[in-house]
Write a structure and sequence with these properties.
five-stranded mixed β-sheet, 33 strands
């Protein structure tokens, strides 16, 4: 059993989705140090896709799909064969899904334990050579340890033992920190980088404490050098690098290498034979969504502004202005019309040089182009594209016009010139028209409180209120406007 433990990993993800992933990923390097064969190695999991990127002892990557977006990934030796394999904890319902091989497929073992929102803590806490899944309840700063696995979608019942340890806000980490053949639990304090653990379960006094890494690192533990003792490691989200130390003490990393992106989630284990040759994990800024805030959002706003999609303050808040700029980018590139930013969008934005269908028009250095099919508009000044706007044009439905007759809500196509404007709000039976510029009859481009992803107007070209403000003074009477599919 002691010999078996030389080839086992005990790791726990910390921070989960509460730790802010940062930008500036370090690409994986072909010269990254290889880990000793037979010891623990690392991997990363894309939480938006359930895709795992497992790195073998020489740095080759194997990629598999396992789990659903939002699941919490971890690894352990569930069938006692000395090889660590994937596990998942579904925070919404407390279900655990374990697989006995490092391949794509369905779970070999399913059960539920604990409450939604608990943090899974895999480890061998009774020294029998098999890992189980215990939990840490962050709101109580309390561990719930159990020494068996469930099965058949049934609940495990009460924990074998539970105890408080540390403070609310600490992050759990588990491993055989003293090399005695069974696991201990420890904690990582993100605010200070303090790591501490007790050699006996249930004892609230730490036997060892030290600082390691930077605040905000995701700390893991494993036997990195094959000496039978688990020691700390960290995934540094700022720069996307692993730092592995071979002693449970303060000091520099013994092994350090870049891998993936900071928004991915780290896992580790003794992975056995892997095929390798798979794709590397993604790099870049990662996904963002409405309601997010911080430097990654500010970077996105700046990047969208540089390509003409964003015209509001770079404030680091993913609100309506950012969401509409993202929508315009998706529309131009004929991507799925969604408000949230995908991880793959970073590379597309970096490579973007302008719409692929914008007409060249000699003699019109300043003009406004409306692309009905993609639901965007472009402002060209001095023969240069300066802005792309999300729009909503006529939805094609019938409505009653000012005379009471039925009229179809179509936006007229053709080549026109701007005729007149109103610097303010015009209220009519068609709704609110903010700072309209008319180009033919009663049809105008104008600001509106509602600019959805699809055609929605009575025939005018809707802009967001802030885009209508931004563009109002850049248009003049006689400027060409072209409306086309």
């Amino acid at each position: 059993m002691r010999q078996l433990r030389r080839f086992r990993l005990f790791t726990i993800l910390v921070g989960l989705f509460g730790l802010a992933a940062t930008l500036g990923a370090i690409p994986a390097s072909a010269q990254a140090p290889a880990l000793d064969a037979g010891t623990a190695t690392v991997g990363l999991v894309d939480p938006t896709q359930g895709r795992w990127y497992l790195r073998d002892a020489v740095g080759a990557t194997t990629a598999i799909y396992y789990g659903n977006p939002g699941d919490t990934p971890f690894m352990g030796d569930w069938d006692c064969d000395g090889i660590d394999t994937p596990g998942l904890y579904r925070k919404s319902d407390g279900f655990v899904y374990l697989r006995n091989s490092n391949t794509a497929g369905i779970a070999d073992t399913e059960f539920f334990f604990g409450n939604p929102g608990d943090v899974p803590v895999p480890g061998d806490f009774d020294g029998d050579g098999c890992d189980t899944v215990s939990i840490y309840r962050p709101g109580e700063a309390r561990f719930y340890i159990i020494d068996e696995l469930g099965s058949g979608n049934a609940g495990l019942g009460a924990a074998d033992r539970d105890f408080a340890f540390g403070n609310v806000g600490d992050r759990p980490v588990a491993g055989d920190f003293d090399g005695d053949g069974d696991d201990e639990v420890g904690l990582y304090r993100p605010s200070s980088g303090l790591v501490f653990y007790s050699a006996e379960l249930g004892v609230e006094i730490a036997d060892n404490s030290f600082t390691f890494g930077d605040p905000g690192d995701i700390v893991i533990a494993a036997d990195w050098d094959g000496d039978g003792t688990d020691t700390v490691g960290a995934f540094r989200t700022a720069g996307a690098s692993f730092l592995l130390r071979n002693a449970n003490s303060a000091g520099p990393a013994d092994v350090q290498f870049g891998f993936g992106a900071g928004w991915l989630l780290p896992v580790a284990g003794v992975l056995g034979s892997l095929p390798g040759g798979g794709p590397l994990p993604p790099t870049g800024g990662g996904p963002l969504a409405r309601g997010d805030s911080g430097p990654r959002v500010a970077q996105l706003q700046s990047a969208l502004a540089a390509k003409g999609f964003y015209r509001s303050a770079v404030d680091g808040r993913y609100g309506s202005a950012t969401a509409q700029a993202v929508m315009a980018f998706h529309k131009v590139n004929r991507l799925s019309r969604q408000w949230d930013w995908n991880a793959s969008d970073w590379d597309r934005l970096a490579a973007y040089t302008g719409p692929d269908n914008l007409p060249r028009r000699s003699g019109e250095p300043n003009r406004f182009e409306v692309d009905i099919s993609r639901q965007v508009a472009h402002l060209i000044e001095n023969n240069r594209l300066v802005a792309t706007f999300p729009i909503a044009s006529g939805n094609g439905e019938l409505f009653r016009g000012s005379t009471g007759s039925l009229v179809r809500a179509d936006t007229p196509r053709g080549n026109y010139r701007f005729q007149r404007s109103i610097d303010g709000m015009r209220i009519s039976y068609l709704g609110q028209l903010w700072r309209p510029w008319y180009f033919v009859g009663g049809y105008a481009i104008h600001g509106s409180p509602s600019v959805p992803a699809w055609p929605a107007s009575h025939g005018c070209v809707r802009l967001t209120m802030w885009d209508a403000n931004w563009v109002f003074g850049r248009i003049n009477v006689g400027m060409p406007i072209h409306v086309w599919d």
